[in-house]
Design goal:
Order of helices and strands: HEHEHHHEHEHHHEEE
CATH class of the largest domain: Alpha Beta
Radius of gyration: 18 Å
Largest sheet: 3 strands, antiparallel
Number of helices: 9
Shape: globular
Number of strands: 7
Structural class: alpha/beta
Strand order of the largest sheet: 5-6-7
Amino acid sequence: MGALHEGHLSLIRRARQLAGPKGTVAVSIFVNPTQFGPREDLSRYPRPIAADIAKCREAGVDLLFLPDALAVYAPDHSTWVNESLLSTGLCGAARPGHFRGVCTVVSKLFNLFAPDIAVFGKKDAQQLAIIRRMVRDLHFQIKIVGVEIHREADGLAMSSRNRYLSSEERAQAPVLRRALLEAKAMAKAGVTDPAKLRARVVKIIESAALARIDYVEVVDAETLGKPTMQSHKLLIAVAAAFGKTRLIDNLEIPLK
């Protein structure tokens, strides 16, 4: 959605690598109105278009798509793409309609570009899982590639919304990463009980005075549901607000 940072550029570099010297790398920048709720930050979402264009050019992007809302949604638009299982929890529970907007716009972009490969960041693990499911269920002939989270030096996941944080909020925001790493250490020591991992993450995040937890969940990394004996990997997903800025982060834990 623009306001490009090093995390976005890592996706472009991965796409360039996958495309090879003869392939084409395309980027879309579109602040999608249908994935924002009525009280969310659509109007103030950063749109430094000139800087974004320059970054894309420097990164070797071949095609940049910068539509306005009317080019994507007709005034009487009435067709939606909705995933109804993976989207119900985590961010989907707090943001009704969000993933319907995501699936609809991503399917539109897939139809317009017909890419061989599409690259997405792992920071929004739920979004990535939903897009994989949509591609499977609707038979898009597209390979989805996930790229690891790009972080600041202190561990905070890079986000276009980080610029909203006050200096004090920014100083406390890395608590999300610290909490996840503590859970990882517990799992490495043999503690993989979801309730115990969740309790530890919550306790650490609550130690930051400015953090307001939206959710902390430990789920099956593939189904996003309750872990079972058949689960191969856990996903610890967190969302918390610092002031008016909502941040997300996650960590995958392989199971033996």
